[in-house]
Write a structure and sequence with these properties.
Layout lengths: L19 H6 L4 H6 L4 H11 L11 H9 L7 E6 L8 H8 L1 H15 L3 E6 L4 H16 L15 E6 L9 H8 L23 E5 H13 L1 H6 L8 E8 L5 E6 L5 H6 L13 E6 L6 E2 L10 H6 L8 E6 L4 H15 L5 H18 L6 H17 L3 H5 L2 H9 L1 H5 L16
Parallel strand pairs: 1-2, 1-4, 2-3, 5-9
Antiparallel strand pairs: 5-6, 7-8, 7-9
Helix pairs in contact: 3-4, 5-6, 6-9, 13-14, 14-15
Length: about 425
């Protein structure tokens, strides 16, 4: 029995990505046609009933975000797609933009219809230059078929989409930093409140959703929120695109129904990862991107859903699963994670800017075989707590997540990195 379920990825690699007729052949634009016969509150109600959680990483309920924006009466309202897919190990939004751009465009157009918006923006990471061209061609194809632009489908509704290119800043994956960058300002996060639904792009009410979230809207509108919910987990409906990479036999993007498969299935099942490459043995998997937690063998039977993972200290995050085998040093891996955050910190706040540098220095010392005193370990615990509580945005707040989880899973490798037995950290467990 197949464990995959294609909704968002239906037709990927099988149709011409910029052919409207071929997209219609797999059910494309049925949702937009149906949306014209529905009231905005009906569509929002379906998204609420579907329990679609944001697919970008934060898992904020999409329906709740839509309802909040709808209740704000100031206009104009903007629809913004967060396509700044800069999370290492994550390439599922790329699949949609490259092979099914019209599904994303349809989802954004439905959102525009719901909120009476005339303008949408897709903020694409700077490294996706070729994909930006695919999106532009898809936008033009939709316009030629009267599915975008003036008087869509012969109605009085007009909606257009513009592509905005990022410049390679990871922090612009944070929605408010993304909006600042879209406006031509420095891509740094804003203080909240006010929330983006109230004061967003150009200081106007704005909906910001991830690529996968918006690409899920057509399925919800066509089948209804109740049926979409039934396909997934009671707490989080539908499917999730999962990115498998690292030491698995079959890396790639897989679409799975939430709550129906386990981490073990995703890594070892022949329908997904197919197990570990070569003769190596599984050691750990890093979930949800660099800001996510690390899971050892003990957690492999955890069901892949937002709530089940949360119960054991893990997160779905961006949908990334980076798998490592027994030949990988957890200490060296954590150093690379820390180097990433040092490089990508925007420098706005001290806890993130300086805290990540101190973490990297600490890990570098351990990798050289140096011993840490009990006082240093206590200070490390305090530093991590300060970073998670006082950093301005999610980058600094979660940059030590991998370290905290790895310390619990592999204490021996971190406490005695050079086979020294004198280092004792049991009295100072990481938070």
């Amino acid at each position: 029995m197949a464990k995959t379920l294609k909704l968002v990825s239906l037709g990927a690699g099988e149709i011409d990505p910029i052919s409207v007729s071929e997209y219609r052949g797999i059910g494309g634009y049925r949702a937009l046609e149906k949306a014209f016969s529905m009231r905005p509150k009906e569509i929002i109600g379906e998204v609420l009933e579907a329990k679609l959680l944001g697919r970008g990483g934060a898992a904020y309920p999409a329906g709740k975000k839509w309802a909040q924006l709808y209740d704000i009466h100031e206009t104009p309202k903007y629809i913004v797609c967060n396509a700044d897919e800069g999370e290492p190990g994550t390439f599922k939004d790329r699949l949609i933009m490259e092979k099914l751009p019209l599904r994303l465009i349809e989802g954004m157009t439905i959102a525009g219809l719901v909120f009476g918006s005339e303008h949408g923006y897709i903020y694409v990471r700077g490294e996706y230059r070729k994909i930006q061209k695919v999106l532009l061609r898809a936008i033009e194809a939709a316009k030629k078929e009267n599915l975008l632009g003036k008087g869509i489908m012969g109605s009085s509704f007009s909606f257009d989409i513009e592509i905005v290119s990022g410049a390679g800043a990871y922090v612009c994956g944070e929605n408010s930093a993304l909006l600042n960058s879209t406006e031509g300002r420095v891509g740094r996060p804003r203080i909240k409140p006010p929330h983006l639904a109230e004061v967003g792009l150009f200081l106007m009410p704005t909906l910001v959703n991830n690529v996968e979230s918006l690409a899920s809207i057509p399925s919800i509108v066509v089948m209804g929120g109740k049926e979409y919910l039934s396909l997934g987990h009671p707490d989080s409906g539908g499917t999730k695109l999962v990115c498998l990479s690292g030491r698995v036999t079959s890396p790639g993007v897989y679409e799975v129904p939430l709550g129906k498969v386990s981490l073990r299935d995703l890594i070892f099942d022949e329908e997904f990862g197919g197990g570990i490459q070569g003769e190596g043995e599984f050691k750990f998997v890093h979930l949800g991107g660099q800001s996510g937690a690390i899971a050892s063998k003990a957690l492999l039977d955890t069901v892949y859903s937002y709530s089940d993972l949360r119960k054991v200290g893990l997160t779905v995050g961006s949908g990334a699963l980076v798998v490592m085998d027994s030949g990988v040093s957890i200490l060296e891996y954590l150093k690379k994670v820390s180097e990433f955050f040092v490089h990508e910190s925007c420098g706005k706040c001290v806890p993130c800017r300086q805290g990540n540098r101190v973490l990297l220095k600490f890990l570098a010392r351990l990798s050289r075989g140096s011993l840490a005193s009990e006082g240093e370990l206590l200070n490390l615990k305090r530093l991590i707590s300060a970073m998670s509580r006082a950093s301005f945005c999610g980058l600094g707040q979660t940059s030590a997540t991998a370290l905290k989880s790895a310390w619990k899973a592999f204490p021996a490798e971190l406490e005695r990195p050079a086979a020294f037995d004198k280092l004792q950290v049991g009295a100072f467990p990481l938070p």
